[in-house]
Design brief:
Layout lengths: L2 H19 L23 H11 L15 H23 L4 E5 L3 E7 L3 E8 L5 E7 L5
Antiparallel strand pairs: 1-2, 2-3, 3-4
């Protein structure tokens, strides 16, 4: 026998000896669903949702994107809110009968109309006017 043939025969005999000398162990295959919607473990639901959201690359083309405000813009917003709140408190307490606040984008007029608090907001950019009337809060 030549060298290549002898190696093949020895390999085949070794493979047959190993296969014949060991037992083949097999078990029953059981399907275990993972998704809780199909009978899986209910504690896996949150994990599966997070995995699906991580893989989601679709975006809504109509969704608005909101940019974070700079610290200066947040400060201006906070001050405007505080000033308008103080104006409403002053009119409500009877310290003044009417007060106004004017910013670059809107004009706010707060007045006490005989025990009824009236707030008039005028949007300077669009010209829209919003009237807010709250009655029964103050004594005339």
């Amino acid at each position: 026998m030549k060298g290549k043939q002898r190696g093949f025969v020895l390999g085949a005999i070794t493979a047959l000896a190993l296969a014949g000398g060991t037992q083949a162990l097999a078990g029953e295959l059981v399907y275990q669903p993972m998704n809780p919607s199909f009978g899986g473990d209910p504690f896996v639901g949150n994990y599966m949702l997070n995995k699906a959201q991580a893989q989601d690359t679709n975006t809504d083309p109509n969704a608005r994107s909101f940019d974070r405000l700079s610290s200066t813009d947040r400060l201006v917003q906070s001050l405007e809110s505080r000033l308008i709140s103080q104006l409403i408190n002053d009119v409500g307490a009877g310290n003044v009968n009417q007060g106004a606040f004017d910013s670059g984008e809107f004009n706010v007029v707060v007045s006490d109309d005989g025990g009824q608090l009236s707030v008039r907001v005028v949007d300077k950019l669009t010209g829209d006017v919003t009237n807010i009337n709250v009655g029964g809060l103050f004594n005339p």
